[in-house]
Amino acid sequence: MSDVFFKWMRNTMLIVCAMVASSAHAQVRELRVGVASHVRSLDVQEITSNSGASFLYQIFDTLIERDNHAAPLKFQPGLATSWKMVSPTTMELKLREGVIMHDGTTLDAEDVKFSLERVLDTKDPRYTSARGRFFYNLKSVEVVDRLTVRVHTHRPDPLLETILSARNAGITSKEHVEKVGKDKAGLMPVGSGPYRVDAFKPTELLNLTRHERFWGERPPFDRITFTRIPEVAARITALVNREVDFITNVPPDQEGAIRRVKGLKLVGAPLPVFHIWVLNMSHPATANPDVRKALNLAIDREALVKGLWAGRGYAPKAHQFKEYGEPMFMPDLAFYRYDPKQARELLKKAGYKGEQITITFFPEYYLYGNHAAVAVADMWKKVGINVKLQMSEPAFSNADHTKVMVQPWSNPLYYPDPMGVFDTHWSANSWVVKKGLWKPDHPEWAPTYEKARFSTNIKERREAYRKLLTMADAMSGWIVLYQPYESYAMNENIDWRIPSAQRPYKLTFRAGQVSFASR
Amino acid sequence: MLRFIAWRLGRAALTVLLVLVGCFVAIRSAGSPVDILYPEDATPEQTALLEKQWGLDRSLPEQFGLYVANLARGDFGVSIIERRPVTHIYAEKLQPTLQLAGLALLIGVCVGIPLGAIAALRRGRAAARAAMALAFTGYAVPHFIIAIVLILIFSYHLNWLPSTGAASAWHYVLPAVTLALPLIAAIARYMRSTMLDVMNQDYVRTARAKGVAEPRVVTLHVMRNALLPLITVLGLEVAGLINGSLIVETVFSWPGLGKVLTGSVSRRDFPVLQFGVIAYAIAVVSINCLVDVLYAVADPRVRVES
Questions:
Q1: Beta-strand relationship, A406-412 and A514-516
Q2: What is the ipTM of this complex?
Q3: B93-272+283-305 is a CATH 1.10.3720.10 domain
Q4: Does residue A337 share a domain with residue A199?
Q5: pTM
Q6: In this predicted model, what pLDDT tens digit does every residue of B93-126 receive, in sequence order?
Q7: Distances (CA, A) of B178 to A327, A462, A487, B172
Q8: 3-state secondary structure of A151
Q9: Does A125 sit within 8 Å of B38, measured CB to CB?
Q10: Both A394 and A512 in a single domain?
Q11: Domain that residue A66 falls in
Q12: Do B156 and A237 touch (CB under 8 A)?
């Protein structure tokens, strides 16, 4: 009897405690996020990094938004309520009425023109990256009236909606930037999104609070803090210790530390990013396409995925991602395979006589990149290649690219279209072309590339892309190693999905994208 | 005495200058911040523009001359990466570092001195031996190991104390203890040996012989004399404390100078690093100078010898 009574008492007390605790927390709903890397500025047109995209997404709206999980892309009204093409190179957009920005001003066409056109200022180097990646086909933005703008492009662009929904096309307040200047505006930015900046310590901390006058649905949190915790073990400890609610970048070999703890969970996936090795087509050692092809065939990708990524990564068969959706993703494409026998034959055919091939690698830059270098060196040795490993630190600081033979890189999918990974990395404007590492010398390369990027007929674009990949495989100017697998770890009661229609690593904390049961 | 101080100050200034030159040349020989600031697809014109803007296109002696001239005017420069005056950055980060180091020093002195004294007085007994063995371990184990072990026990397994940031008073506990442990060990060991020295001195024996009560002998005759040489040790240890705080701040994500300094090296943020190195050198050199002068005040022989 006394036992039953005791149990009843205990349970009642627990329930009362839980109610008190949850009512206290109901007043301020806060999400504390521990991130691996941070940003030095929050200038929405300047910052193109992964962590930047996550922060900017909460603060800034774009004219056109995306359904975060649709493949192929589905567009939704953002700051523009409707849009239509009025000529092949002109899109007219009607802006939303009464959007109050974080500085209290009302959004109008001048803000849109100011935000998008400053990317075109070639004299200001801070916008080079965004322009080269997304906006090089943008010509000008014309103010028609207070709530109507026309976006002019140099050439008809099948990807205009996609590009206008990239976060670097976010709209900031013209009045604010003109008042405080670009540098200060980067530290105290003004957008129109559901959260506004409360405190920002560059490369360290970002505190957001709910924007009371946000035009859209009220977001799930009153406050979000993003704290930089660079070490993975420290991030995990902070989560286990309930110092934060959510952490990024948990590699497969660290998952055990989360699984052991009750009340936490992991959300992970192979990310739409390729870890790549570029083979320098200008270097004598890697100039022969047969040698490059042999280097490709000698790599057992399945073994790498199994050994380095605990079987969780993905060994692709072509330079494409399923995130494109139909019809641009082509499941029948299969170029990459492991064939050491053919690799040896190709080396023989190329007259390879044991010339040294150096793998440059960046320690600690790409997750498991060191291990990959050692493992592949071993695979190459097995087919008779004389391999040397060379460390370069910091990453990409090897100033003289003519001396590089093999070097790591990554190809993230910036928007879910073949061009979101191809045009953003292998176009004629890319550094690999400018520095001569990638030299697509096939006479049909340039015209096919044109079609793949600019054709307004989607089938033609797809076939051009298929042809590009076929030619690229023949040239074998790079090696796709694998797609990495990374997880987010969080409190069990957080319901969040990886937004596959956004670029990898993007955190989405707006209304309907995340929910948080009472703590 | 004045000559002695002037000589020491001159030497200190030379040290700071040499450190500055070394840092200036070393960081520039590692590469340009422009490589890090810009994506790979930046044009040569754009990088040239930025290098010109920051004066990186000039020769090294020219850059150095310009930098020293600016320093003389009190202009320490603007961070290349964050685009704000370096003095603002340091002003923001100095306080957390000083608080942490100050707290560690306090713990070190308050625990280390009594521990060393007890170890000397109870020499040979098990408790004293255990205390000294512990102190020896604390001295031998590097900061980052202590930090990780403490985090593992008190944050990961017990969930008692926070492990990242400086949001509340509780956040100070683990980093301050991490920094203080080797300090306690150093102070205790030194205190013990000087105590033992002093205890064998004639004046202590005399004090006992003339019937002074034991507590009075210990506090007034032994400890007071044993504390004097500790000044030197503390001076050295404070410099070590600043060194250690760089590592400890990184492990605990402490928003202090450590992160600024290590970050500025990897990002090649020249103005930030240079200011940090100068400030650091001046701090260490002034502490040493102060110790020298204090010592000279306390012990006339030092003055005569130099």
A1: unpaired
A2: 0.71
A3: yes
A4: no
A5: 0.83
A6: 888 888 999 999 999 999 998 888 888 888 888 8
A7: 58, 60, 31, 10
A8: strand
A9: yes
A10: no
A11: 61-176
A12: yes
